[in-house]
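[Primary structure, fold]
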Amino acid sequence: MRWFVWGLFVCCAAVSSAEDIPLTTHEAQHLSNLRQVTAKFPRAGEGYFSPDGQEIVFQAYPLGYPFYQIFIQPLNEQKPRMLSTGRGRTTCAYFTRDGKQLLFSSSHSDPLIEQTEKAARELAAQGGRPKYQWDFDPHMDIYTINHDGTGLKRLTDAPGYDAEASYSHDGKQIVFTSGRDGDADLYIMDADGSNVRQITNVAGYDGGPFFSPDDKWIIYRSDRQKEHMLQLFIVSVDGKQEFQLTSNLDQVNWCPYLHPSQKYLIWSGADYSKGPMGANFDLWKMNLKFDDGKVSGGEPVRITDHEKADVLPVFSPEGTKLMWTSNRTADGTSQLWIADWKE
């Protein structure tokens, strides 16, 4: 899952208007027209735009069920429709480039699904975990499904965790995270699930990958330097050239996403110099320079400074909107938010 270790703590309602939701003075330099996209779920987030920018796909807890499921809804109407099976853990949905299908990961094939669900419900009844923690479920595999919810097809069946998948911009390849060799590394496969090849092979977690707009690079996060202290990396699609973009081990940097122009990326980071208690995630931007096969990053620029956490940012296909997950909601739940992007 692209949440890794740090996360935020069906019915319809009107989307909150921009007038009801003030941006901070700092945020207003970069964003405008802030509005809430999802509501009434116990927790919702990690949303992605359809190719035409008219719909979003995201994961949310259905009322009464202990694991995320995948939902799709029009961007401007809170009318969510469940796409996943309704069983097991699900995560990381993504539209195909023609918008006719969607990709997501699910553990609904777990042969002990009833016991898994029972254990999760019992834990929830006891108050849940003291902090969010993502389980690298070994039954998690990657699936595609038609936009109307038919035609579920399994793409991976290797032992271990397969998730965090997304398409190349030409639609021909899928990059994903897999634990099939003993720890979480990056892999690429053809869109039909064939021709799997490994891209990274370093001890530690490599995950949350996305192709660059020109399909020559993959942006991702890794804790290879220090466990849990995620930093940002970019690697060529053949795995031969790799560059580290952040290296501050007092700060957790994760969920990077490239602007369609490929001139900069956005991500979420938090100061962990005093430990996780009190650390708050905000959105950051970094300019990128591609020069003679090398990639370098500029100085980080802070985008949000709200007292609540902001994570998992993504740009709309044309690059004029920013969507992310935040618990700045009136009821304190984690939901999706969108704003116009001024950069």
